[in-house]
Structures are given as structure tokens and as C-alpha cells.
Here is the input.
Amino acid sequence: MTKTLTGIPGLDAITRGGLPQGRATLVAGGAGSGKSILALQFLVNGARRYGEPGIFVAFEEQSRRIVSNAESFGWDLPSLERNGLFFLDAQPNPDLIQSGKVDLAGMLAVLEAKVKAMGARRVAFDAIDVVLALMDDPRSVRREVYRLHTWLADHGLTAIVTGKSAAGYNAVAGIELLDFLQFMVDCSVSLSHDLVDGISQRSLRVTKLRGSAFEENATPFVIGLAGLEIAAALDPAAGRARVTSERISSGVDRLDTMLGGGYYRGASVLLTGSPGTAKTTLCASFAEAACRRGEKTLLISFDSAAEELVRNMKSVGIELAEFVGSGMLAIKSAIASNNNAELHLMRIKELATMQGARCIVVDPLSALAKAGDHGVGHSVAERFIGWTKENGITSVCSSLLDRALPASEGTPLQVSTIADTWIHLDYLVQAGERNRGLSIMKSRGTAHSNQVRELLLDRKGVTLADVYTSDGAVLMGTLRWAKERTERLAGEAALAETDHRRQRVTLELTDLEARSVVVQGELVLKRAEAARLTAAAASVSDELVSAQIDLREKRHADDAEAGAGTAVHA
Amino acid sequence: MREHDVVFRLYLAGQLPNSQRALANLTAFCRRYLADRHRIEVVDVFECPERALADNVLLTPTLVVVTLLPPRTVVGDLSDAGVLLQVLDREIDRNEATTEFVPLP
Here is the structure.
């Protein structure tokens, strides 16, 4: 099926390419649901962007009023009316008297002349229910709907037909006015406008689209500065900015080191933590660093006014005032519950686009969860991150951790799964102190530190200190200081002890060496003495033998042999 | 045209049933109540769509009683006799009528 682009942000994605060409699309919704704006936007975009002139048939409001209502959207209808857009007032005269059956043949004849004259390709019938209510039996309604359908097809016109979904019951004819239309059209869209937790929430749902796949879920939308903007689901393949490996500073030197050089340009960074864990300070550090690099930065604060934030950050050495003055930094404070999440997102996008921001800080992003429906808040957070990525904008968002929430992902909006870098801040209450700890939960594509650091705030800004782990406990604050001191003292003592022992051993060695010289000397003496004695013994023995021999010879008494033996025994 | 003639302008869509029925009913009504003091101008919107647009006539059939002040507009095939009688109440003399007007359904 050939389709016609509507040019309405998000709608073409939901319908996978637009509305069925040469066919009718029914847009049904309650009063004030945005039907007329959608229909008019379809025609304006056709005339302005796609070279397809269009005719707006107004059954309910006078075209003058529609034109003036749409003035705020910047569509410049008066100039379009001279070229490419025609308004037909088809509002039945209130003084009109009816007698019997009527049909739309006359209107179609008038339109036909106009279509030919201006080469129209698009047409919108706004509030068709008003005219169908004049038909007094189901047959007539069916006949006129069929007449309209055939006429559109014959002329290859792509049409939007709007009708009120509620109060559309024709008591005379005994039918729902839009029923026949629902069956006739090739595409059907329903708009709703509800209050969710007291906050306005609009949504759009395609209920039928013949011959095509489409997004079947209800999708939130807003009526913004340029008409309808529908929160189309993210298309990961669509227009991503070039992925870079450029690193930019977080504003805290040691944090950059922990991250292996800083955040990636274009990444989304999530800072989570309980209240008071210095999330805002880290946000402001990043903003300050970005401004110093000369990058336009937008800071959205849901917590405090701009002046307050500047003053508070100044107390921890983060100077934002000069950048606010030079226009490098724009600080906008917002109140979460004033708008629904969609409107907040749209406003952020507008501000960022106007400013040309390269870095965006949202403090805290979790405020969106307060802005109406929780599910919508999540979807908005997801699309916000998607949008920053598409535009190569680096985003740092804080998020309050709410332990009361079902902690499936830890963060209220479950953005932790889509964020590239997730830094968690925590308190450690110990020894009567509350100290802040910082750890990197994840950081895609970077080898990051697994260490918990103690986050210190002073007048010079943020610093990160190593924490001590002792017997499985993490030490921070004065305990860390005490531990550091104890360890330093212990180190010094150990050093002194070692030195002392070294000296003692040296002394003992010297002693042993000296004693070893003495022993060597004695050894020499003893050896000499031993040798001397051996020699003396030998001479004594010789003398003795020769003396016996002399004696025997002198006696001549004993046998030489025996005498010798006795002598030895003696 | 005489001074007191009632002038009707009937916008119709060619040969479509509603339009043809309206023309028949109007003719019968006039014959009955305004026999010699009326005039019917027929505008076929298929032939003159610009005229219909200029006169802001979009539903067919549409009857405009031009001579009434202000002019009155009646849409439909005029199958409800009471409506025309009511609209032209001051213009007609019911006693003039010899037989009752019965519109085509």
C-alpha cells in the first residue's frame, strides 16, 4: 500500500510511513483531544513540505477561528491560504430548517471544482459527525459515507476525517455515527486525553491500518509550539550521531582517572544516590568543566532556582555565575508536577535546540516520574537519552534512588539500563559521621576502577579520596583519617625497629668476625704445638730403642728376640 | 414577476433522488398554496459548483425562500409538509387550498 507522509513528528513512524494514499483515515476522539489540529497539521505539512495542496472542510468551527487558533503554531496560514490551502466553511447554519433527507452530493460537487482548480491532493473533513447527525436513518448515513468514500477514491485524495468518539450516538437513526466510517476507512486513529494522577496526559493509538504493520500501543503525544508531537518509539537505526572515542572531563580529576579518561563525548551518564549525596555538585562540576571547554551547556534543575544553584555551587568552589553571564551556561528551573513528562521533554528539546547545547544536565531526571504516569516518565527518560545520542549531546542526569519503589533496576525510571555510565553515590554512616562514597556501577566501553572512593566536598570543590577497608568494613571520614594515622605511625615504628635490628645484627656480625680471627690464630698455634709434640715423641722413642739395644749388647744375657719383646711390653 | 410573488431558489444535485424529490415536492406545494404567485429558480450544483460555494450551499437539496426577510433556508427533500407550511405561514392562505398537500415520502 502506498502511503502519504503526514510530516507530524512521530506519526509517520507509528504508521510505518504515513497514511494510506488515496484513502480515508478516521481520527476519532473526544472534545479537545487534538483532532482538528492533527487534520490541519496534515494539510499544512502537505502544502509546505510535500507540494500537496489541501482543502480543510470545517463542519464544526468556522475556518476563521481555526486559523486564529492555529496562529500560535507558526504555520502562517494566511500565506498558505493564498497558495496550497483552502478552507471551506461547511458548518450547518444554526437557523437551518430541515425537512426530509439531505445528502453530501452538493458539497462534493463544490469540492470537486476546488480540487481541480488548485490541484489538491489532500483533504480533511473536520467533525464529520455534525453533518452525519442530519441523516435520519442508518441507510442514509451509510449511503453518504459510501458516497464520500467513492468520491475520495475516484479523485485519489488522501483524507483525514475527524469525528467525536463520545456522544456520537444518533438517536433518530439508532446507530453510532462513526460505525460505518470505522468500517469504511483504511486507517483509524483514536486520540484520548486523560488525567493521570492529576496531570494531563494525551495519547494516540492507531487501531486499524489496512495492509500495513503499525505500532499498536497507545503513544503519548503533546500539543506543543509547532502542533502535535507524538512520542514515537525509538528507532535505534535512525540518525545516530557519529560515535566518537573522545573523552571529556567529568569536572573531577580523580573521577576522570577512575573512568579511564573521563566520560565519552555523546554518552549518557547517570548519577544515582539518596538526597544529599552530592549528585547536584557532580552535575555542576561537569557543567562547569564543559563551559570551560567552551561548550554550550543546558542545566535543567527540578530542585532549585537558578540563582540558588549558582550560590550553592559557589560554596564548593564551582563557579557558574560567569558562564551564566556569558551565555555559555543556561540554567532553567522547572517544577515537575507543573507539566506532564512529555511536555517537559519537549521543553528541554526546545531549549537545547535554541541554545545549541552540546552538553545537557538534568537534575534530577527522576523528577519526571512525578510528572504523571510512571510508565510515561520512563518512556520519556528513554527518549530523552535517545534524543541526546541522536544529536551527539553528552548528557549527565541525576536520579534519586527511592528505596520504596520496586527496585527492579534500582532507579525510579529504570534508566540505569540505558545509561552508558552509571555512577552511584552513597552514604556510609559510621562513628557518628555520614560520609559520601562514590563508585562506578558501570561504564560501557571503558576499563574503569572497581574501587569505592570517598567523595570530599570543600571550598575548592570535589575531590575523591581512597577509602580503607579493614576487616571487611569500609572506613571513611575520621575513621579513615585515624586509620591512616595509625598506619603511618605503625609504619614509622616498624621502620625504626628494623633499623635497630639491622644495627644489632651488624654488631653481632662484627663481633663474630673478630672472634673468628682470634680462633684462627689459636688454631695456628695449636697446630704448631701439635707438630712439635709429635716430633719430640718420635725422638724419645728412637732414643729408647737404641738405649735398649745398647743395654742388651752390654748384658749379653738375653736372646736378642725375647729381650726385644719384653722391652716393648715394659 | 409580480410584487408579491414568493421566490424560491432550489439548489439540487442533478438527478439524485433527494434532489428530484425536493423539486417535485416544492412544485406540488406551490401548485397547492401559491398557484399563481411564486417563482422557482433551480441551481444544479453539479453545473454551477462556484455558485453553490459563493452562496455557501453544501448540503443538497437546499431550498432558499429568497423573498422572506430574512431569507429562510430549508434543507432536505421537503418530505415534511409541515415545515414549508410553517416557514411560509404568512405568505399563504390555507383556505385557498382546494386539496391537502401530500409530499412524496
Chain A has two domains: 3-230, 247-466. The first helix of chain A runs from residue 11 to 14. The first strand of chain A starts at residue 3 and ends at 4.
